[in-house]
Design a protein that fits this description.
Urease accessory protein UreF
Length: 219
């Protein structure tokens, strides 16, 4: 496989693309990780500010933490229960915790029917790592597909909320590809000590979203 979307050359590669497609039924379309508040407040208002916001989330916020957790969960002998607890502890808001747990539970349930892996609920990056580990695909490939899908979900939220066309949204996603590949390569060899980040604006947006009177997205 190669590139941010990969080119599947075997059954395991094809199944990986299927599992990590934004169309896989985790309900990801209902979540925006605080981006809705950022758009409503004007902090994100066009393609340029959206690209900057997404890059910061990926490199310094939940994107990086999820990438490391996923990489750790892919490894032989991984303590998935311990990683799940760690993933929960890294969620700074109630909405963020709900998002990763509900998507993780949905992912684990459907993926188990396809892979024979544990269907027990877990935070999303842990559930993904647990289900994808038997496929034998390189960690960087798995992680790049995961981050690509997460970025696409947020871009689709922006396309629905902002005066932003599909072409501009796709251009923003293409622009994020080098960052996604770089983060995935770093995460492939990361340890628990590499967890952490500083995306204060995104964290504030998630907290503020909880008190918005009118909301399209759940987070």
């Amino acid at each position: 496989m190669g590139g941010p979307l990969g080119t599947a050359t075997d059954a395991g590669g094809l199944l990986l693309v299927q599992l990590l497609s934004p169309a896989f039924p985790t309900g990801g379309f209902a979540y925006a990780q605080g981006l809705e508040w950022a758009m409503d407040s004007g902090a994100v208002h066009d393609a340029g500010s959206l690209a900057e916001w997404l890059a910061d989330v990926l490199e310094h916020g939940s994107g990086w933490s999820d990438a490391v957790l996923l990489s750790l969960a892919l490894r032989s002998g991984a303590d998935h229960g311990g990683l799940d607890e760690l993933a929960r502890a890294l969620c700074l808001t109630a909405e963020r915790l709900t998002e990763t747990l509900e998507q993780g539970a949905a992912f684990a349930r459907v993926a188990a029917a396809l892979t024979g892996t544990d269907p027990a609920p877990a935070a999303l990056p842990v559930a993904v790592g647990r289900a994808c580990s038997p496929l034998g695909q390189p960690a960087a490939e798995v992680t790049s597909l995961y981050l690509h899908g997460q970025a696409l979900n947020l871009i689709q939220a922006a396309v629905r909320f902002l005066p932003l066309g599909q072409t501009e949204g796709q251009r923003a996603l293409t622009g994020l590809a080098p960052l996604i590949l770089r983060l995935a390569a770093r995460a492939a060899t990361a340890s628990e000590s590499d967890l952490g980040g500083c995306a204060i604006g995104a964290d504030i947006a998630q907290a503020r979203h909880e008190t918005m009177q009118t909301r399209i997205f759940r987070t």
